[in-house]
Design a protein that fits this description.
Length: about 375
């Protein structure tokens, strides 16, 4: 984990990570610790880093020595021991390839081990490892296939702990593919029973829950399911800025909310799961804040709105105009009067128009079908 986070840190700009040399040292130390030769070669090529020939030679010798010992163990187990010992020997070899960052060989080795595994719980553990491998290397196909396999195994009789962990794994996958609502629901389901410490700490888990809930849940659910949750209250103050971010929007303290969002956006950009969605996420949260304020009024002065958010009138004018043009905010700006007027959509009228449109489509399909049947 420290290796992949350090690698990710090296790809960020100097403003976010000014100490690139220190981060690079952390990465090399993590590679040396786990003898990750294939991973070292991969990131050196990907990030155009010059490889140290002596380091490569050292890792090659250590990898070959360890692999020879693992192969000898497999041979001994097949000749002298039972099926359980054979499986453990094959699993040790698969874990070795996983540890050194040889993804393709590790996947193949785990498949061989899976075929030699009878116990359902042990099969699920292998599938979980493959999901983690997919998350590590951002291989969405590997993650999706193994989440589906894990769901099938869980339905066959997986224990409570593994069912619970699967929800956390799927939540992170949904976060990766920007299904924030699905991710928030699953994270919330496992809030009181989190046990996936092989993925991240409980504090990190709560951080992801807060971020996903803020962009997905309504005010009532945020209050009851997150703000007042004993599990969240226990750790939220240990994460800098998170309590202010969580409470300020609910309490309609928009200036505090904007400050907290700005501070946390830096952390979002540094997080390997959240970073690809940083701009999208921050934009959605700004829209949520503007919408919440506008819902309370039929009209509001631009100057007052700017003061509420702790920004200039020019900034709020530009922001609102952009989101109105994108049809994300239901209001209009009276530039002369300096007023924002809300134009709430009529839900019943929208439902009526939708029904008419779907009815027309259905009639057209029936007419086409009648022609085919007539012929």
């Amino acid at each position: 984990s420290s290796g992949i986070n350090a690698e990710y840190g090296l790809t960020l700009n100097d403003e976010l990570v000014p100490n690139k040399e220190e981060v690079k040292k952390q990465l090399i130390d993590a590679i040396r610790k786990d003898k990750m030769l294939p991973y070292y070669k991969q990131i050196s090529e990907h990030m155009q880093l010059s490889m140290d020939p002596q380091f490569v030679q050292e890792l090659t010798a250590e990898n070959e020595k360890e692999l020879a010992a693992l192969d000898a163990k497999i041979k001994d187990a097949e000749e002298n021991l039972g099926e359980s010992e054979i499986r453990e020997a094959y699993l040790a070899k698969a874990d070795f390839f996983c540890r050194i960052g040889d993804k393709e060989t590790a996947v193949s080795a785990y498949r061989v081990t899976y075929e030699k595994t009878v116990a359902l719980g042990q099969r699920l553990d292998i599938v979980f490892t493959l999901i983690r491998l997919g998350l590590f290397f951002k291989d969405t196909d590997l993650v999706v296939r193994n989440i589906e396999k894990a769901k099938t195994l869980v339905e066959e009789g997986g224990d409570w702990d593994r069912r619970n962990r699967l929800k956390t794994y799927e939540a992170i996958h949904l976060l990766n593919i920007r299904d924030f609502k699905g991710s928030a629901d699953l994270l919330h389901d496992t809030l009181a029973t989190f046990s996936s410490y092989e993925l991240f700490s409980y504090n990190t888990f709560v951080k992801y829950l807060v971020f996903m809930a803020m962009v997905s849940f309504d005010r009532v659910k945020i209050k009851s399911g997150v703000i007042d949750s004993p599990e969240v209250l226990q750790v939220v103050h240990e994460i800098p800025g998170l309590s202010q971010y969580l409470n300020s929007l609910y309490n309609s303290d928009y200036a505090q909310f904007f400050q907290a969002l700005a501070a946390l956006s830096t952390d979002i950009k540094k997080d390997r799961f959240l970073a690809p969605h940083a701009r999208f996420y921050v934009r959605e949260m700004r829209i949520a804040a503007y919408s919440q304020l506008l819902e309370s009024y039929s009209s509001v002065r631009l100057e007052s709105m700017g003061k509420a958010f702790g920004v200039s009138t020019e900034f709020i004018d530009h922001e609102l105009a952009r989101f109105i043009a994108a049809n994300r905010l239901h209001c209009k700006i009276d530039k002369v009067g300096g007023i924002v007027e809300t134009t709430r959509p009529d839900a019943k009228n929208a439902q009526y128009q939708s029904t008419i449109k779907q009815g027309d489509l259905l009639l057209n399909r029936i007419q086409k079908l009648s022609r085919v049947i007539h012929l």
